[in-house]
Amino acid sequence: MRSGDVIADRYRLEDTVGAGGMGVVWRATDLELRRVVAVKRTSTGDGEQLRREARIGAGLQHPNVISVFDVVAEDDERWLVMEYLPARSLRDILRADGPLTPAGAAHVGVQVATALSAMHAKGMVHRDITPANILVTEDGTAKLADLGIAIWSEVTVTGSAQSPGTPGYLTPEVTRGGAATPAADMYALGVTLSAAVEGAAGNGALTGVLSQLTAETPSRRLSAEAAAGRLRKVARGTAVARRKATRLGLLAAGVVVVLVAGLVFVPRLLPGSEGSQGDNAGDGTGGTVAAEPPGTPAPRREVPGAGNAKLLYGLSGGANLAQASELVAETPVGMLTTTFHQTSDLKTLNTWRETVVPDAYRKGYALHLIVPSWLDDDNPEIPLDTPYGRACGRGEPFTDQFLDDMRSLARIFAGRPDGPPLYVTVFHEVNAFACGDDGYYENSIATRAYYRALKDRYLEIREVFHAGAPNGRVGMGWQGWQSDLDDNPELGGGPSMFDHFADVLAVSDFNSVLCKEPEGNVEDVRLTVAALGEYAPVMVGAYANKDVPPDVVDKDVRALLTDSSIAALVADGLFAWNFNRESVIIEAGRPTYEFVMDVVRRTGREP
Q: What is the reported pLDDT for 286?
């Protein structure tokens, strides 16, 4: 095959990005969806192996596992179509940059452990957890690669699938001829993380976790879920430092590597990065190299964070009407917010696709979509059947129509990958969705089942926007009062509720807090930004509404938007602040309005 050839009338080969004893991988363009993918052909011509790997990949959808999209045929040969991921393998990072800090290794380990937890829950065993098979993106997201020798009870194991794994990472029981079990994956993860911190000082709490992962007896090793919880605590010990340093200090900017099914591929420099050559260097078109995987959620897009005490300010009211406001016209407001309520809204929003949306992006505005914001009468709490048992909560997110609406919104609001971003706050007030007491995760079996299913749905929606909108960044929307509730670790109430959502918060592109309390929002903002900032950058997705009295709005903004307060919030992870309609500020009085305009002029930044 040559560059320019088209596989299965859909995938145009661009260039080889790696080759090895197992086969060759090409960077390719999906001509139908207009995205970059990776396609693999085995050197042995073993089409059954590719089909088997594809079945396992299709049976596992997780943000920390490389996406497998399809298997196609061309000239009697099978090709595996996969996510093209800008990343380096952990092995290459360690060779080039030296050992990770304990917190950095734990951050990677949490993500791998959550992926393994999902695999093990489905009866799968990876069987080859090594630094070579863990990819780490530029923003620090880790993904498992190489499902080539994984086993699954629903897939027949033949040929090379009988291979037990990589020597040095095999458990004592496997080397003696025993079967690979989930405990074998956890042992290999422990060896991998031990290698990642070898020679680094101050392993402290990480050492205890690693010793439990590599216990001689399989039954004494930590499960994937337990390991994720232990590693998350280690990683949190330096969470703020990680944000300020960004990218975990792991990756050199611009390097792209694809490693799938045991193949190590040659690093390439993204166009526009230091050392790149060619006509496109520095023109911004290289943004399309970044993967846009629809099979599972994409790695977290980078969102500007702490460091300069500047904020991206936004205004609700719709991408069309907000531009006519005095605040947008007279200050550097850089984000226009639209709220989606119901399917009938699409009739108007569809007319924006060719005019309002591209015009806003052309002018340099980021767009922010809050979806959805239902009234209780429109979306009542009802009994539901979920994979986790009988649940109770709002039913709309689980309907086919809802997912179709999300696909439509992704198409309408899509922009260029190298243009202004689209921020999507999903599940407006998620902590009030389940039946029973608001802000509790485990107050009943039905509540727990509901929120577990809702997390799965959130990842599906994140996948929809990443696939349909190359500039999309997705976050979950929380009412700010969650942090102000009494902490209840036993029932997952108050700040403890965030712990139960840690797996999805950590892979979100950003997290969103909605603050509309009539009694005041100062502490809600500060506490929730600090809590959510442990996982990803934070946006105040909607500040105030008609129920917040004008005097409270005045007190809130004068307390929260001083230079010192903004600096503290940015240090905790805040990157954006969205005012919920201009009328909220106007009704607070002209002095308040002018105060806000002065703040935005001094501290506002471009997207």
A: 31
What CA–CA distance (Å, rounded) separates 247 from 353? 34
Helix (H) or strand (E) holding 210: helix 205-213
Cα separation, 451 vs 434, whole angstroms: 7
DSSP E strands in 251-354: the ranges are 255-256, 268-269, 312-316, 335-339
The fold of 312-336+352-369+382-575+582-603 is TIM Barrel (3.20.20)
Which residues in the chain are classed under CATH 3.20.20.80?
Answer: 312-336+352-369+382-575+582-603
Name the DSSP letter for residue 604. B
Task: Give exposure, 485-508, as e/b (b: 16+ Cβ within 10 Å).
Answer: beebeebbbbbbbbbbbbbbbbbb
User: Taking the mean position of all CA atoms in its chain, how far away is CA 143?
Assistant: 11
Query: b/e map of 211-248 (b: 16 or more CB within 10 Å)?
Result: ebbbbeebeebbebebbbbbbbebbbebbbebbeebbb
404-414 residues labelled b (16+ CB within 10 A) or e (exposed): ebbebbbebbb
Report the length, in residues, of the chain. 607
Q: How far apart are alpha carbons 435 and 394 in whole angstroms?
A: 8
Rounded to 5 degrees, φ, ψ at 475 are -140, 165
Intervals of the chain under pLDDT 70: 18-23, 42-59, 146-165, 199-204, 237-308, 373-380
Cβ-in-10-Å burial (0-12, 13-18, 19+) of 576 comes to: buried
Q: Is 40 annotated as a binding residue?
A: yes
Which segments of the chain belong to CATH 1.10.510.10? 87-249
Asked whether the beta carbons of 548 and 514 are under 8 A apart, the reply is no
| Nearest residue to 74 (alpha-carbon basis) of 41, 48, 43 | 41
Exposure class string for 419-430: b at 16+ Cβ within 10 A, else e: bbbbbbbbbbbb
Please list, in sequence order, all residues whose beta carbon lies within 8 angstroms of the beta carbon of residue 377, skipping any fewer than 6 positions away: none
pLDDT at 351: 96
Q: How far apart are CA 586 and CA 299, in angstroms?
A: 40
Calpha distance 498→136 (Å, rounded): 24
The token pair at 58 is 């299709």
Any idea what DSSP says for residue 100?
Answer: P
Which of helix, strand or coil describes residue 146? coil
43 close to 23: Cβ distance less than 8 angstroms = yes
Dihedral pair phi/psi, residue 101, rounded to 5°:
-70, 160
Query: How far is Cα 246 from Cα 251, in angstroms, rounded to an integer?
Result: 10
**Domain 87-249 superfamily per CATH:** Transferase(Phosphotransferase) domain 1 (1.10.510.10)
Categorise residue 149: left if φ over 0, alpha if ψ from -120 to 50, beta otherwise: alpha
pLDDT at 24: 80
Residue among 511, 517, 595, 591 nearest 549 (CA)? 517
Burial of 460: CB neighbours in 10 Å, binned 0-12, 13-18, 19+:
middle
Sign (positive or negative) of CA dihedral 348, 353, 354, 356: positive
What amino acid is encoded at 75 in this protein? Answer: D
